[in-house]
Amino acid sequence: MKIGAFAFVLHAHIPYCRSAGRWPHGEEWIHEAVLGTYIPLLIALYDLKEENCPFKLTLDITPVLMEQLSDSLVIDHIEEYLVDKVNRAQSDVCRFEKAGEGHLLYLARFYLDRYQQILEAFRNRFHKDIILAFKKLQDEGYLEIATSAATHAYLPLLERDSSIYAQILTGIETYRHHFKSNPKSFWLPECGYRPSYYTETTGKRYLKPGLEYYLSQMGINCFFAETHTIEGGQPIGKAQEQVLGPYSNIPKRYVLPFVPYGESTQKTTYLPYWVNSPDIAVIGRNNQTSRQVWSAEWGYPGDFNYREFHKRDGISGLQYWKVTGLNVDLALKDHYDPYWATKRVEEHSKHYAGLVESLLLDYYQTNGKFGIVSSAYDTELFGHWWFEGVDWLKQVLLILARSEVVELTTAHEFIAQHPPQETVSLPESSWGMNGGHFVWENADNYWMLPIIQSAAMKMEQLTEAYPHATGFLEQVLNQAARELLLLQSSDWAFLITTGQAKEYAIARFGYYSDPDHYEGHAGRFYKLVHIVESGQNDSSSEDLLRQFRETDKVFPTIDYRIFKNRERSVSG
């Protein structure tokens, strides 16, 4: 008898980097994800399908990633990258053969076979169309593909509701374009949730609806939340103290108090809940299963037999070493052995499946209810960061598909079959440090927010001033809307906070000082604003528009009017 359900929820996202340079930052982010994650994942899922395995998986693909994986230029660059990897492995085979390096020769041949298989699958099995390959799995009932905000904007920090509306609607319309259906589930970027609240501006009181209001209005009936958002208490795996320090000048609504989490919900992640009304449900991330993968101390990816991500060959860039041990210096890493890694995958997949079964059985025996374990991860963790991760995921799906007590499910399917019995009000939260906004709003990146908010206000003003634009003017306004969406991406603030690509993120975000000095998304946005407000309509303006449209080539059917003012005044 099935006593509970399990849902893998994978979140696939790469920042907008089309034609924005290569290593160490830029479009190669996509190429690496395709090589390490997306094609291996598709191979694994299609193999499971051909083995008649009734697996189920929920996969969120952000709209900006959908657009990039469907772009002909990006597709050409992906193929070039895969061919280059095959050539590098082949060169290593020759190099190690001449040097008499037996084990390294074995590894180079291992990579050569793997890269050739991935290139062959990309070209012939999936016909260079990754999005279509995932769509077919959804059409056949194996996948539920969810959508997200257009450019992965961190929604709680977007002050203007027009921006929240535009991000969500563009995300849904992009999904419809690529998958020819309506999404039912939605991934809030960074699990960033904003409840409804009141604010006062210029003597007027405004109601700011919770994010669930916009989602439900657009046909979404499920979204996902971090563990502490549902259970209350301390954010899982994050710093325990409230981070304030030099950031005390940040508006108080944006500095989340630590204590109220425990007072707000205190529910369980084993059940879904309606959020404020019986129109849209929330599913919380299960902590025990998630930490089994995420934990830096004892998560599976840190096993000493798995491949080391950070050490690369000085000539080819291929990765020939294993984790080896805890805190072992890169110079002292031992060589990788796929045989022993495969053995660990078998052990870890059995352990994980057993954990899922035991958790659901314990919940059923304790509460007498059919519960769900929802385990959410970044898709790119599997294969790219954790080399063996896709094989592990495949084995877990295979084991649980045969389980006598666990039912594999997807988010929407579970809500449809087991509707929530309770309603909950959620606190403002995320899966960032302290469960709050710090990662996207701190001393290093706080300067970005006023630029984003001012641009949103300007877009609202242009929408009001030109409600019926046509021709060249409409095209300029539509491109301005694209640049604003890209400007709002959470990726730029995130990269600055982590220090992974600070200068790159600042350059992509951009600046604007005057019509002759501009750069990045901010610069292109305000240059387009200048064209509109100055009434320019000459050949140089048309050339500039074509240039911007080619540089930031996303959301082809966008209508700038989505940025119409949506603030809801409740008092004069």
Main features:
ten-stranded mixed β-sheet, 46% helix, alpha/beta, 572 residues, single chain, three-stranded antiparallel β-sheet, 2 domains, 15 strands, immunoglobulin/albumin-binding domain-like, 7-stranded beta/alpha barrel
In short:
It is built from 19 helices and 15 strands. It is of the alpha/beta class and 572 residues long.
List the SSEs and their pairings.
Layout lengths: L3 E9 L15 H23 L6 E5 L1 H7 L2 H28 L2 H24 L4 H10 L3 E6 L12 H19 L5 E3 L9 E5 L2 E5 L2 H7 L4 E4 L1 H5 L29 H4 L8 E3 L5 E4 L2 H8 L43 H30 L3 E8 L10 H13 L4 E3 L2 H7 L5 E2 L23 H18 L5 H17 L2 H9 L3 H8 L1 E4 L2 E3 H15 L4 H13 L16 E4 L1
Parallel strand pairs: 1-2, 1-10, 1-11, 2-3, 3-4, 4-7, 7-9, 8-12
Antiparallel strand pairs: 5-6, 6-15, 8-9, 13-14
Helix pairs in contact: 1-3, 1-4, 1-5, 1-12, 2-6, 3-4, 11-12, 14-15, 14-18, 15-18, 15-19, 16-17, 17-18
Fold and architecture overview:
The protein is α/β, with parallel strands linked by helices and 572 residues long. Helices cover 46% and strands 12% of the residues. The strands form three sheets. Strands 1, 2, 3, 4, 7, 8, 9, 10, 11 and 12 form a ten-stranded mixed sheet that branches. It has a three-stranded antiparallel sheet with strand order 5-6-15, with no helix packed on it. A two-stranded antiparallel ribbon has the order 13-14.
What oligomeric state best describes the polypeptide chains here? single chain
Q: Count up the domains.
A: 2
How many β-strands, per DSSP? 15
**Class from helix and strand fractions:** alpha/beta
Unreliable sequence segments: 236-264
Gap from first CA to last CA: 60 Å
* Largest β-sheet summary: 10 strands, mixed
Query: What count of helical segments does DSSP give?
Result: 19
Helicity range? 40-55%
Sheet-strand content, in percent, reads 5-15%
CATH class of the largest domain: Alpha Beta
Tell me which CATH architecture of the largest domain applies here: Alpha-Beta Barrel
User: What's the alpha carbon Rg, rounded to whole Å?
Assistant: 24 Å
Task: Choose one word for the global shape.
Answer: globular
Classified in CATH, the superfamily of the largest domain is Glycoside hydrolase 38, N terminal domain
Report the average pLDDT across residues.
92
